[in-house]
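Researcher: Structure prediction, please.
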Amino acid sequence: MERKSFLDQEPPPGYVAGVGRGATGFTTSADTGPVRFESQFGGELADGADAQEEGILAQTANKSREDDEADRIYEQIDHRLQKRYKKRSGDQVSADSAGTVEIPTGTGAIQQEFTLLKSELAQVSMDEWASLPEVGDLTRRNKRQRLLDQQQQRTYAAPDMLISSAGSGFKENASNTTVVAENDSAVKLAEIEEWEQKSALAGDLEKGRLVLASLRRAEPYKADLWISSARLEEQARQIHQAKILISKGCDLIPHNDEIWLESIRLHRSEGTKVCKTIMSEALRLNSQSEKLWFAALQLENPGDVTSRRKVVMKALEFLPRSVNLWKFLIDMGGTNEEQMRLLTRATELCPKEWDLWLTLVNISSYSDAKAVLNKARKQLPNEANIWITALKLEERENLDVSVEKLAIMFEKGRKELANTLSLRVPQNWLEDAVKAQEEGFAKSSQAIVKCVLKDISVDDELDQLHALAASHSLTSPMISSYIQQFICEVQPLVINNWRMLFGLLKSDIPRLYDMYEKAMDSMPENEIVPLMYAKDKWILGSDVPGARAILESACKVMPNSEKIWVGRLKLELRNHEFTRALTVSKESIRVPSTSSPRLWYKHIHVLRYHCKRKPGQIAIENALAASKEALLYVSREP
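Model: Predicted structure follows.
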């Protein structure tokens, strides 16, 4: 067996061998000091003396009689004191002395008090005394307990079914645990971020205070610094300090309206009365501030029209040329006479504001409105809206006014604007036309487009006009139709231009019919236009008699057109007018110039239908005869 290394090493200080097994320590001279030996000469060597010393330092002499006498006296005094103490304490001293254990040692007696412990030992039963372990059995008892614990922790193999059934629950628990952990992590991260933001905000607030305080000392009459300082304190929720700062700013810069507005905003929590007091002082010092007057209006009750009107009228005393105040006063309403009176006064004081003139025109009668527009022309010679408004006024009052008359008026206005060097590009005029169309003034819009497009050479810039029409086809189809109509009027013999126009006018049926009539007048011998006209009349307008009349009229103008005869026949068949269809087919084959294989084919089909469905009307022999005649006609064709 290998020898342990600690057996050859020095023991640590205070080590007592066997103390873990209950061994008791003992006292040696190392603990009590050097032992005093009796001299062979009958005396003890003094502590620390050398036995070989001689002379006055020699310790071989006996103690003096005085020393012995002193020792004896001290012993007697100690003995008497002990007796006196025992008498005074009585039985208590006797009991205490009975419970005292004296252990004699080389240096004296070590006393340990066991009184309380011995009294508690009386309550220990015999079984408890018997179950006390032996001193040397501690290690063995711990080993037995360890072996017992190992036996109780045995593991056994579990069946596969148990593992598989527990697996799903484990996955669910794991997923739930993951979700909870993620949520907890998100919450913790949010809390950390919030804490960091608050910490950063606190540091920024302190820095901001120092910087703004330094700037205020450098520039005490700059309103932005006082406003920024107050808002910084408001952000730090120091509302009282913010009010103090803004009040100081108002005292230093009383003629700045922005700082007064900020003061009113900060004092909103104290009620309207306090804000009105501040506003009165602010208006006394800044009566020319439009912002302060509008802020004063916000302090009034919205339902109290009288008070708000008084505030506006008071403001107009100081700011009579304020357009915004006049507009606000007019928007508050009133009778028509009051509105006209206010607008008349407003246009006198603010003659360069077109919106005031326009409002006055809209509430005036026809004659008064024309007079107002004439005044506006003198005050605003460069304003193009005056002429557009004149067109709308004329269309509103005269529903039968023609586009040509409106175009003449507009052309006059354009010339006057050109004389004042107020030139506008066609795109701007077209935007005005779009607005007029959206407001319901279709004729005015068309007149504007017609006049504007006259400046463009159609022969040289036809592609530009088509591109302009295409650009408005989605956003403003009517404007695109006006442009296309202008192209058709300039080039009336180009059928493709008319087709594009007809496609744009599908939603405006009356105007579509009007354009068809103009196209037929421009191209009376074009067979496509009446066919398209009849089709739209039939499908869009549900007017079969009208479509029939169009085709009959076209057939008289163009009796040799096969397409028109086929169109007439198709119209009757689709509308189940088989008798009319038979009549039309007979007419078509009796005209030598129009008789064709296609028309004979249609005629025979009509006869077959009558033979099957209406056998009493036409005999089968007639159908066969018509078929033979058709074959002869085809055989005669070159």
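Model: The beta strands are 100-104, 109-113.
Researcher: Thanks, that helps.
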